[in-house]
Amino acid sequence: MLWRTFLILAGLSLATTLAWVQIFRVFETAPRLQQLAEHLVSAVNLTRTAMITADVNKRRDLLLNLAEREGIEVYPAEVDDSISLPSASDTDLQRVLMLARQSLGADTRFAIERAGQTGFWVSFRLGEEDEYWARMPIDRFQQQLTLQWLGWGLLALLLALVAAFFIARRLGLPLQALSDAAKNIGRGQSGVSVPETGPLEIRNLSLAFNHMSQELTRLDQDRALILAGVSHDLRTPLARLRLAVEMSSDTSLQSGMAQDIEEMDRIIGQFLDFARYANAANPDATARAPTMLRLSDIAQHMLEHYRKSGHQLSADLQPTPLQPLHELALQRVLSNLIDNAIRHAAGSVILLRTRKARPSESTQEAVVMEVIDAGPGIDAGLRERLKLPFVRAQDSRTGPAGSGLGLAIVERILRQYGGTLALLPRPAGEGSGLVARVTLPIAATAAPA
Asked: 184 or 241: which carries more pLDDT confidence?
């Protein structure tokens, strides 16, 4: 909008300047050319009259006086004079010469160079035989005919363009702030506001945006509070139910009910995690300062934990640089992605990989962590929607399972680091499956691997 508005105002200023140029030419050029022609005719006539009326013995002094005081030099014309004619493309000068010739006579000659001497040369006669040249400074005609006002017009145009730029910038900056704030809200930040400055309409828009941002923050906080409260209250009866199942003598029901209780407990845990990370200023629920960690070391720790639990995981863990990270938050990210892969990959081997990002994958230096499974994969149209809260896969994986909060929690945690989560199909030739790719930018304080 800034440049579009600037170009519109610049075009308007340019058109206005051109219009004034045309008005100037119509109403000023013709009188000015007429005045120049009259000045030329007067100078030649006065020179000729002075030479006619002057005493022959004093004519030399007269010519010297004319040269010193008026800049007019008089030379006798020769038959073989070498002269350069004025340019025919200079229409204004040709107009002056035509008007002067009408007064001085049809046989009057004009030149801009004679015998190697530049100047404005005009011929005149003293009688029938004697022809002379009057040489005048050429700048008397060139400077006036080169439109000195054009410089002032360009200066006015430049000032108008500068003013147009600042006007457009004044309009564009508040809108750019609104755009950046909207992007921040889209990335999950809360409490975003913009300065309520600028023209009245933009101030009203900023006021409405700030009100909307406050309401969204309040609604998000209320939702997180409700989820945390309900989930916490469910933990107590769930514990009693687990105790009752364990004390039951009916072994045929124990196994199934225990699995159901574990699933319910896991879902409640996800509700609590979603509420915990929804509005956290930093991704660690304990709000501790980040420590310098390697993402590959966190992945190695989680790999050993899942292998001890009997899950089939393979690994390709390349060392990654040290980064300021919260270990608990990154463990939560990795566990959610591995749990999803275990749940939907139907017992296949899951590959855990860490490496530095290739230039084609990120515009800045970053590390990549991937969880790769051999399940049925996810339809392309559903990959982004699965990152939203309470959205669960229906057809693309093994059917509905869980609360639909696992990937939403991962997305919220990664936003705090400026990272991204991408759900991609496995490369061609490797069969079906899903690649859950986490990309984390390397902070400026990161140490080399």
From this structure: 184
